[in-house]
Design a protein that fits this description.
Blueprint (H helix, E strand, L loop, with lengths): L13 H13 L4 H23 L8 H10 L5 H18 L6 H22 L20 H27 L9 H21 L7 H9 L2 H6 L7 H34 L4
């Protein structure tokens, strides 16, 4: 039986479409299997994309491939977030953590958003008209199951809001901002301050250097002659800061997984 939301993918990538269709059929009856199939779907998509961009990484783990695709700008921030969400929840399912149905449904919806974009990438010039996502039909739920499902949906919305706030706190620009125009404006303002500084006889505010700070990653910044940190030390400092952020995010994700586990097990 063809997938109601993913059947169109057979024209572009049959394997990805098949995995998505299998995930869709499991979403109510076996949420863990749904997430497992969705993770395989995302991994298959990532391998196809990485072969186009950086084939030497095709045997890397999924997280490494996604980071590479982000750096190359083949993956937008929104698409990367959706893929990482499927990767995280898929990993939890693989390790046997019980999963509420609304979690699987949320990731299935993410996969549908990704599917239209992915087909356009693998078939250049293809005009993919992505229809609105429709939750698969299911038998009616009794009052208790309906209440549990509603509670799960509320939990997923809360988790997504917390993830969004954390993500934005780590970024210079928010999701919908025009980074090019904002960067230009900031540099122009800095040049204006340069002119004021000249008239006041003060040392120049280096607009180009500040723009460089905005554009460079931590490690390269530390290696810049203005700082003069040796490469090995700069790398260690960058890794330490990265690890601190990662540990904070992992602690939050652990709390999210515990909430889901309790809900899936019917605990309050």
């Amino acid at each position: 039986m063809p997938s109601s939301n993913f059947g169109f993918m057979d024209r572009y990538d049959q394997r990805v479409g098949r995995l998505a269709g299998q995930a869709e059929r499991y979403v109510y009856t076996d949420p863990e299997s749904c997430l497992f199939k969705l993770r395989l779907m995302v991994e298959t998509m990532a391998k196809t994309l990485i072969e186009m961009q950086a084939p030497h990484l095709v045997d890397s783990d999924l997280s490494t491939m996604l980071r590479s695709l982000e750096r190359s700008q083949m993956l937008s921030r929104a698409h990367a977030d959706q893929m990482h969400a499927i990767r995280r929840d898929g990993n939890s399912a693989v390790h046997g953590e019980p999963t509420p149905g609304p979690t699987a449904m949320r990731r299935l919806h993410d996969a549908h958003r990704l599917s239209g974009w992915y087909c356009k990438i693998v078939k250049r010039g293809a005009k993919v008209e992505l229809k609105a996502f429709e939750p698969p039909s299911r038998d009616s739920m009794d009052a208790k199951k309906a209440a549990q499902w509603k509670k799960g949906e509320a939990l997923e919305s809360s988790i997504e809001k917390q993830r969004q706030q954390t993500r934005e706190a780590l970024l210079l620009f928010s999701e919908n901002e025009d980074t090019d125009s904002i960067a230009t404006k900031l540099v122009d303002e800095l040049k204006g301050w340069d002119e004021i500084a000249i008239e006041a006889g003060e040392p120049l505010i280096d607009a180009e250097f500040v723009a460089l700070v905005m554009a460079m990653d931590i490690e390269k910044l530390l290696e810049h002659p203005r700082f003069g940190v040796p490469s090995q030390e700069a790398h260690a400092m960058a890794e330490a800061q990265f690890d601190a952020v990662r540990e904070d995010l992992e602690a939050k994700e652990k709390a999210f997984r515990q909430q889901r586990k309790q809900l899936a097990e019917g605990q309050d």
